[in-house]
Design goal:
Layout: H1 3-33, H2 39-66, H3 70-77, H4 82-110, H5 112-129, H6 135-152, H7 155-167, H8 176-205, H9 210-229, H10 246-257, H11 260-293, H12 302-326, H13 332-350, H14 356-384, H15 390-396, H16 398-410, H17 416-440
Helix pairs in contact: 1-12, 2-7, 2-8, 2-9, 4-5, 4-6, 4-10, 4-15, 4-16, 5-6, 5-7, 5-9, 7-15, 8-12, 8-14, 10-15, 11-14, 11-16, 11-17, 12-14, 13-14, 13-17
Length: 441
């Protein structure tokens, strides 16, 4: 076995061990506290998670399946110029930025379930347009893709949190923090299998369009299951379907967005998630550059590396889940501070490493921090933002993130020096996020 195979095997074993340890710790904690087994409560908690996470796996699969092949289709199959490809990518982020202020607000007014179905429709349109060679159709698809991304990272979480509050499941069976950790775990497992399936489809049909058709199937399946299995909610604390007017929702959302805690949270999340978008674009080139400098001209095993990153991300989410299971005291802010500090260090150190394996490990640490970040940040947002405006606030929080990504990518240049400058800039942003979060602790 080579280096990357050994590391992937170690990470897989580590994750399996964490699942076993977490399960045994949960049972031991119940026995130690003398908590009687409640089969009905367990059934309610299991059904809630199963109903949400299965659909969530399908919607993130639609995203993960086609992600690795979008650039290749634009560049190699449709033979578009590099500048045109960059404009197509930018148009998606611009669309996401434009839709961010009102997409979630419409979800709060017309229903989060309806907005989740809208995601399936928008992403389905994006997949279909990839079959066309017409440039305007491709821009049309990127427009809907940007809207879909905004919906993916706002309305599904908003629906789940409100549904959790409506069901009020026994927290000894499943806490909201555990659900967030399970969302991250589900996403990473789905990413690994999506990579394998996508690669198999490309080889089977000798075309990179196969994963996009599979994404379309996932969108259709998810949309049907949402309509059949999920009930509508509007962020109300009761189960009534009466919703406030649009103007009242706007006032509530603006009130929430001007909350100092929400402003601090928005800044911190942008300082973390923005660098993660940049990391996705730069990690492969960084590893390739270090390998070439060492005199090795062999192709990197990108599939194994990607799977290792996903396993590292899963390990990060499992660590937070075990932490929540072992300690009753809420440590969300302290965990986020630690995550920001370690990630900042990971980016800074990566600019000084000339050894391929050391750089790979540094990137694994960054991915592990990503896995720890998302469930903790999701829990923090759920505590700060009220249910009635959650969809609108969550989508609006993505506006500065989309603007950040568009602006930074407009300044892209080739070369190691530029990439290292970007990584140092990311380290500085993460340090700023650390200071902001420490001020909230």
């Amino acid at each position: 076995m080579d280096f990357y195979q050994v590391n992937l095997a170690i990470l897989v074993v580590a994750n399996l061990s964490s699942f076993i340890y977490s399960h045994r710790s949960h049972i031991h904690k119940q026995r130690r506290c003398g908590v009687p087994r409640d089969d009905e409560a367990e059934a309610v908690a299991a059904k809630f998670q199963r109903k949400f996470l299965f659909v969530y796996a399908l919607v993130v699969a639609a995203d993960w399946l086609q992600g690795p092949y979008t650039y290749a289709i634009y560049k190699y199959e449709k033979q578009l110029e590099e500048h045109t490809v960059a404009l197509l990518y930018a148009s998606g982020f611009v669309s996401g930025a434009v839709s961010a202020p009102f997409a979630g607000q419409l979800a709060d007014h017309y229903g989060r379930r309806a907005a989740c179905v809208a995601y399936c429709i928008c992403y389905g349109i994006t997949c279909l347009t990839m079959l066309s060679r017409n440039l305007y159709a491709l821009y049309f698809g990127r427009f809907f893709g940007g809207i879909a991304t905004t919906l993916l990272f706002s309305v599904f979480e908003a629906w789940m949190i409100t549904e959790y509050h409506l069901l009020q499941p026994d927290e000894s069976m499943v806490s909201l923090s555990q659900v967030f950790a399970n969302m991250t775990t589900t996403s990473t497992i789905t990413a690994i299998f999506s990579g394998i399936i996508g690669n198999g489809l490309v080889q089977r049909f000798d075309s990179r369009l196969g994963p996009f058709l599979a994404s379309l199937v996932c969108c259709i399946g998810a949309g049907v299951l949402i309509l059949v299995m999920w009930r509508e909610n509007y962020g109300s604390v009761d189960k009534s379907k009466k919703t406030p007017g649009v103007q009242k929702l706007k006032r509530r959302m603006l009130g929430a967005l001007t909350n100092p805690k929400v402003i601090a949270l928005n800044f911190a999340s942008c300082c973390f998630e923005g660098p993660m978008y940049l990391f996705v674009f730069f990690w492969s080139a960084a590893l390739k550059s270090v390998r070439v400098k060492s005199g090795n001209q062999d192709e990197l095993p990108f599939g194994l590396i990607f799977s290792s990153f996903m396993c590292a991300m899963m390990a990060g989410s499992r660590i937070t889940a075990i932490q929540d299971a072992l300690y009753s005291k809420d440590s969300t802010l302290n965990t986020l501070m630690l995550v920001f500090a370690i990630t900042s260090g990971g980016f800074a150190v990566s600019t000084m490493l000339d050894h391929e394996y050391m750089l790979f490990w540094a990137f694994c640490v960054v991915e592990g921090c990503v896995g720890a970040y998302f469930p903790k940040m999701a829990l923090l947002k759920s505590n700060i933002v009220d249910d009635y405006a959650r969809g609108g606030v969550y989508s609006a929080l993505r506006l500065p993130l989309n603007i950040f990504v568009v602006v930074v990518h407009s300044l892209d240049r080739d070369g190691d020096e530029h990439r290292n400058s970007v990584f140092l800039f990311c380290a500085g942003l993460l340090l700023a996020a650390f200071l902001i979060i420490s001020g909230q602790a």
